[in-house]
Structures are given as structure tokens and as C-alpha cells.
Amino acid sequence: MEIAVISGKGGTGKTSLVASFAALAARPVVADCDVDAADLHLVLKPQIKKMEDFTGGKKARIIPDRCSGCGMCFELCRFGAIIKNGSYRPAYAVDRISCEGCGVCSHFCPEKAIEFSPAVNGRWFVSDTRYGPMVHARLGVAEENSGKLVTLVRNQAREIALKEKRPVIIIDGPPGIGCPVIASITGTDAVLIVAEPTVSGEHDLERVAELVKYFNIPSFLCVNKYDINPGVSKKIEEKAAASGIVAVGRIRYDRSVTEAQIKGLPVVDLKSAPAAEDIKQAWARLMNEIN
């Protein structure tokens, strides 16, 4: 069983919730699919067992001995990735950060002086945590193909779950509704949407609701810090219900959550945290709804 936890925006408490779910679940595999800004490792403190490079795209490179300095690549590039090299050879160079990997420069180079080869876009890891295996990744600065990296992370998590006969995969998805979110939720058994009781939170829920409805995935709602604005919390739950999304949890505002983050612990590991009871109830209701 795969459960993806997502949100319409960052900062809703999604990752804190996933960390607590990892502590509550029976023999889980955890997949951090927020590869652009991964932070689940700050709480689960994984011990890396395996690390590999991720190659998800291509980059151009000018071969000095072949370049005649004609400047065609400079004229054709629409991303400003070809820069003049002054008096140095070759006459032009490729800015690796600006290069979008379209291949136009390589295709039209009359001297065939531009190599277009796979590039390392990031790294992925398989680790151990005190709650079970964790698969996570780090996309490089200004790199592309985060959706491909998310898919790789999920596939690795599935392999581990199958090999070790672990019954549940908990996915910490990225915020928003873009490509990496779609890669995180496609084919999952359930999606839990974490929302906050604000005007933007209400709007973001509508966007995420449309996304999960399109993929026809059983969806559930948890409102974090619901008590800071009960009126908006109610409106969010009503809108979710109208979209067929079942509300399974309300988590109160609790300063203990910050304390847990400082200590690098899931909230449920703090026995004195009032929010811990809310999270336990949300997990229990989610399991009951899914099963």
C-alpha cells in the first residue's frame, strides 16, 4: 500500500506529519519525493547505505579542438547558455547552469564540435532510519527532470517494500500541483492532503482537489493548526467533502511541534505534545478509511 502526503503549498506541516506517520506505521518504507527541497532527513536522521548519481537529462559541451569559432551556437541558443570566451580557445563556452539541454546547438554545429551527453543532475540515497528504510534524493542546483527523479525514488522504495515484505510505503510529496507532484501520486492507493486554515490554504486545496480527482485516487484531508481559524477550517472541510475528499484529521496549533523539530524528532515521540494525540487519531482514521 502506497500513501502519498501532499499539500497545495509549502510550509503546511506535511513533512512533520510524514515523520510521525513513519513512527506510527508498522514496518514502513519512507520515500521523500520532495527532491527539489528535501528535508525529511532532518527529522528521521537517516544513515546512508547506498548513494548513486542521477542522470535525467543532457548538457552541451564544446570540444575545443573541433570548434572553428563560427558563432552559430551563440546565435541559435535561446537560453543564453553559449557565452563568448574572449581570447581563449575555444571562442565559445557553455554555461552549464543556463543550458536547458535542448540540443539545438549540437544539432546545427557545422563542425560537430558540440558534445551532447548525459549529465549528472543529482543524487539518490537508500538509508536506514530508526523506523525503517528510507529512499530520498537531492536534485542539483538549477537542474531539471525532478519528475524522473521522483519516479526513481518511488521505484526503489517499491523494490525494498517487496523484498522485505513491508506493507506500507509513506511518500512525502512535494508541494503544489506540478510534474513532481504528479509523479509522486500516480498509481498510489491513497493521497492525504494537508491544508492550513488560511485564504491561500483554501485556494490551494481547490487546486490539489482538481488534481487528485483527475487521477481518480482515493483522497483524504487533514487540516493543520485548525484552531487558529476554525471558520476557514470548516470551509476547507466543506469544500473537500464536495470534491469527495474525506476529512480524517484536525491537528491543533501546538508549540511542541517546534520543540520536536529542534530536537530532530517526530511530534508523536514527544509524549507531552497535545498535537501528538491529534496525529495519532488522524493516522488511525486514515488506516480505517483505506482498509
Give the SSE map.
Blueprint: E1 2-7, H1 14-24, E2 28-32, H2 41-44, E3 47-62, H3 72-76, E4 82-84, E5 92-94, H4 104-108, E6 114-129, E7 132-139, H5 146-164, E8 168-175, H6 179-185, E9 190-195, H7 199-214, E10 219-224, H8 230-242, E11 246-251, H9 256-263, H10 274-290
Parallel strand pairs: 1-8, 1-9, 2-7, 2-8, 9-10, 10-11
Antiparallel strand pairs: 3-6, 4-5, 6-7
Helix pairs in contact: 1-10, 5-6, 7-8
Give a brief outline of the structure.
Keywords: Iron, Iron-sulfur, Metal-binding. With about 290 residues, the chain is an alpha/beta fold. It is built from 10 helices and 11 strands.
Write up this protein.
The protein has 291 residues and is an alpha/beta fold. The protein has two domains: 205 residues, P-loop containing nucleotide triphosphate hydrolases (Rossmann fold); 64 residues, Alpha-Beta Plaits (2-Layer Sandwich). 36% of the residues lie in helices and 29% in strands. The chain is built from ten helices and eleven strands. The longest helix is centred in the middle third of the chain and has 19 residues.
Please give a handful of descriptors for the protein shown.
Alpha-Beta Plaits; 291 residues; MinD superfamily P-loop ATPase; 2 domains; 36% helix; alpha/beta; two-stranded antiparallel ribbon; metal-binding
Average of the residue pLDDT scores:
93
How far apart are the termini? Answer: 10 Å
Largest sheet: 9 strands, mixed
- Alpha carbon gyration radius: 23 Å
Strand portion, in percent?
A: 25-35%
Query: What structural category arises from helix and sheet content?
Result: alpha/beta
Number of domains: 2
User: pLDDT below 50 for ≥5 consecutive residues: which ranges?
Assistant: none
CATH topology descriptor of the largest domain? Rossmann fold
Count up the helices: 10
Oligomerization status of the protein chains: single chain
So what's the CATH class of the largest domain?
Alpha Beta
Q: In sequence order, what are the helices and strands, one letter per element?
A: EHEHEHEEHEEHEHEHEHEHH
- Percent helix: 25-40%
Number of strands: 11
